Amino acid sequence: MIVRAIAGLAGTWFLMAVVSIPAAAFDLQGHRGARGLAPENTLAGFARALDIGVTTLETDLAVTKDGVLVLSHDPVFNPDVARGADGAWLVPPIPPINSLTLVELKRYDVGRLKPGSKYALQFPDQKPVDGAWVPTLVELFDLAKSSGKTPRFNIETKLSPDKPGETPDPETFARVVVEAVRAAGLSNRTTIQSFDWRTLIAARKLAPEIETVCLTTASTLRDRTVDGERRPSAWLAGFDPATFAGSAPALAKAAGCGTWSPRFAELTADLVSEAQALGLKVVPWTINAPADMVRIIDMKVDGLIADYPDRARDVLAAKGIALP
After folding, report:
1. Rg of the chain, C-alpha, whole Å
2. CA 152/CA 156 separation, integer angstroms
3. For the residues 32-50, what does the mean pLDDT come to?
4. Does residue 1 belong to any structural domain of this protein?
């Protein structure tokens, strides 16, 4: 009986070990740091994400007039996020970040959401940090280094084929990003993601050692009609969904991406299987409700992006999935 009991315990331990092997690689990404808990794309927000224990810091990039990479989701400030040096909330017209030098940009305060705004109501648990400025990418790298932790970085080029005047051209944007990542010695811990795949193609040519991530949502995959003729979406860098039977994973693979990152509500278990069969990792965005996290994790995704990485950690722990 004792031998059988020991054998049973050993079998249980082995099963647990086998189950935990793929789970150890699960990638928990803090969206814009930890947007649900601290001001987005601020050093305070990224510090909060590191404290929670994410594996990857996800952020967005803009480029200043003097060529400095800074962290901002919007090429033109969201007036519900930013205040001027006088403390007043911004009102249109708002200058794009690429028209401001770094010194000028640092005068803006992005440490609090505008009270009563629709945007602020989405994140009632966010704790303000008045006086927070727009960080540079180098400042984010330095923060991570000083924390003693070794997170990965998932950095997004924010540009639009429909608004070329608000950002550098795709080739210039890609070059500046690649140079910054290489200068920091972080090519093996950084991915470059974008909805505008032109920067991904350019980055792959410049730095094939840096993995790219194809972001998608229905609107960026949708064909356009110009002068009565169908044209593939301008977001896809010339790739035509019709050539790939409308398959987003097949498009992402053709574009050279190592990861496909779709909007979570548009993801199915069959699409996860299709993408992984093509050799792609699947990391959907942005998942905040625990029930949605459970559903998506059960699809066997490789990671997820969340505004509330603390909630995601709780869900992962409940499912027996360990993080590094």
Report:
1. 21
2. 13
3. 98
4. no
